[in-house]
Amino acid sequence: MNCKIENEYLVVEIKPKGAELASVIHKQNQLQYMWSGDPAVWGKTSPVLFPIVGTLKEDTYIYKDKKYSLPRHGFARDHVFEVEKQNTDNITFLLKSSATTLEKYPFHFELRLIYTLKEDTLQLQYDIRNIGGEEMYFSIGAHPAFAVPLVKSSVYEDHYLEFNQEETAGRWPISKEGLIKTEPDKFFDHTHVINLTKPLFYDDALVFKHLKSNSISLKSKTHSHGLDFYFEGFPFMGIWGAKDADFVCIEPWCGIADGVNHNQQLISKEGIEKLASNDSWSRAWKVRFY
């Protein structure tokens, strides 16, 4: 059964499995902003990516001369989180390391996902604590899928993404194995808008590194509803949609898939975060719905 938080603006549902955001309905306009999670297309709605983002080379990494295997995006999305505390407008989910996780990932951790409502804005904060006796290496990322079109009278191609800064970044292409290629393709040319079309994602996600922007808005040319997505402190960004699906994912990441030439050593993985014993790490993204 889903957990629910709400205030005078929003009603939000989260699944305990993966602490996954499932539904956001605006009380004033009655719009559902989240993808339905249709398993025939893509059965997720907003998985947490931990302790890796994207794909490992050969699904394997090496730490202290030992090989470990992890599936794409890690394991947290497949575990049921404990509800640690809950109020009307906020909820904290907790996942702790266990014998099961230690087989794949040799670090003792506590991972908290904290959802908080403030007016028409939902914030998701990631809190990670290293409860082990040595340095911990990890990545974490978001993968929320927002419904497009937002209203029934519009179509997918009416919608666009607007970045809050003019961008010149290239797109980092993804190999058929899910790895990041060595050179970017040209993408932004002193522009700040991506017009949404279904073929945009036929070659997998749009992956960007170190954008100037720290917010992206989903807007429509035919109506006034949309959302503003804020992602300060996340150095990588993925934009994705399943083939011909009615959603777009806005994915801020602290971490990225392995490069095609990576040596598989965890400590030298691009974008890897390092956390000292008994220390904590935190990032948050938030979305305003209108």
Q: What report would you give on this structure?
A:
The structure is a single chain. With 290 residues, the protein is mainly β. The protein has a single domain (3-289), classed as Beta-galactosidase, Chain A, domain 5 (Distorted Sandwich). Helices cover 2% and strands 41% of the residues. The chain has one helix spanning 99-104, and strands at 3-6, 10-15, 20-26, 60-63, 66-69, 82-86, 90-96, 109-118, 121-130, 136-138, 140-141, 145-147, 159-167, 191-195, 206-209, 215-220, 227-230, 236-240, 247-254, 273-275, 280-289. The strands form five sheets. Strands 6-7-8-9-21-17-16-13-14 form a nine-stranded antiparallel sheet, with no helix packed on it.
Give the gist of this structure.
The protein is mainly β and 290 residues long. The chain has one helix spanning 99-104; strands at 3-6, 10-15, 20-26, 60-63, 66-69, 82-86, 90-96, 109-118, 121-130, 136-138, 140-141, 145-147, 159-167, 191-195, 206-209, 215-220, 227-230, 236-240, 247-254, 273-275, 280-289. The mean pLDDT is 98.
Q: What is the tally of helical segments?
A: 1
Question: Strand pairing plus helix content: what structural class?
Answer: mainly beta
CATH class: Mainly Beta
**What is the annotated CATH architecture?**
Distorted Sandwich
| Sheet with most strands | 9 strands, antiparallel
Report Rg. 19 Å
Order of helices and strands: EEEEEEEHEEEEEEEEEEEEEE
Strand content: 35-45%
Q: How far do the termini sit from each other? A: 27 Å
**DSSP, total strands:** 21
What is the helical fraction, as a range of percent? under 10%
What ranges have pLDDT less than 50 throughout 5 or more consecutive residues? none
| CATH fold type | Beta-galactosidase, Chain A, domain 5
Q: Strands of the biggest beta sheet: in what spatial order?
A: 6-7-8-9-21-17-16-13-14
- The number of domains is 1
**Mean of the pLDDT scores?**
98
Shape descriptor reads globular
